[in-house]
Amino acid sequence: MTLKSALRHITEEPGELLLRRWNWKSALFSSLFRASIFFSVNLTAGWRAASGAALAEFAYRAVTAGFYGALTQHFRKVQPHWHGTVAALILLPVIAHSIELAIHYLRGTPKLAASIAASVCFTLLATLFNLYVMRRNAMVVGAEGDSFWQDMRRMPGMIAGFAAAGPLALYRALRGRKAAQ
After folding, report:
1. Which has the closest alpha carbon to 28: 156, 161, 151, 153?
2. How does DSSP classify residue 142?
3. What pLDDT does 42 receive?
4. How far apart are CA 120 and CA 165, in angstroms?
5. CA-to-CA separations, 155 to 62, 138, 144, in angstroms, rounded
6. Residues 41, 44, 47, 48: is their CA dihedral positive or negative?
7. pLDDT (0 to 100) of residue 142
8. pLDDT at 41 (0 to 100)
9. Are 99 and 60 in contact (CB under 8 A)?
10. Local structure of 143: helix, strand or coil
11. How far apart are CA 161 and CA 145, in angstroms?
12. Which residue pairs from 119-122 have beta carbons closer than 8 angstroms and sit at least 24 positions apart in sequence?
């Protein structure tokens, strides 16, 4: 599917894509990781402030991260892959962090700028990771996905493959460049 057709599908059938394919696996992990980020960043403002920020983030992500996971799952099929990657790296953070900023601003999260910056950095890495594993049919929900436990059994290899992907791509590029000389 092209990026244009993927975006058209999102606008024409948002309920089917975002509600029926709500990715509970993404919601579970995102809520836990992001609550931890907000807790850690705000701990210097006190235990109560850190707990409040973590709970607000957990609640927000528990509801919305399944939608973002559904979008990532949808973008995994875009060809060429880099089009889907760029779209996910722009669209998801703009939507997610605009809402996140408003929630934490309104609730008075003390370390707001640092919290959002850490969350954005995590989003960029997590989106790349999620695209990587979803393109290998892990962390996918619906008929195309495996069980949660099958995904977890595959996760150590997925993490290793993801960590090696950048260095391997660089090696291939340098090797190809050297062969062309």
Report:
1. 151
2. S
3. 95
4. 21
5. 22, 8, 17
6. negative
7. 87
8. 96
9. yes
10. coil
11. 19
12. 119/34, 119/37, 119/38, 119/57, 120/93, 122/33, 122/34, 122/37
Q: Could you give the residue ranges of the DSSP H alpha helices within 43-147? A: 47-75, 81-107, 112-134
Q: What sign does the CA torsion over 139, 140, 142, 146 have?
A: negative
User: If the chain, 181 residues long, is cut into consecutive pieces of 10 residues, what is the mean pLDDT of each piece?
Assistant: 91 82 92 96 95 95 92 94 94 91 94 94 94 95 90 96 92 77 64
Nearest to 162 by CA among 145, 138, 146, 140: 138
Residues 6+ away with beta carbon under 8 Å from 181: none
Rounded CA-CA distance 17/19 in Å is: 6
In the chain the first and final C-alpha atoms are separated, in Å, by 36
Can you tell me the distance from the alpha carbon of 60 to that of 63, in angstroms, rounded to the nearest whole number? 6
Q: Please say whether the beta carbons of 53 and 44 come within 8 A.
A: no
What is the reported pTM? 0.86
Instruction: Identify the residue whose tokens are 């973008």.
Output: 75
- pLDDT score, position 152: 96
3-state secondary structure of 13: coil
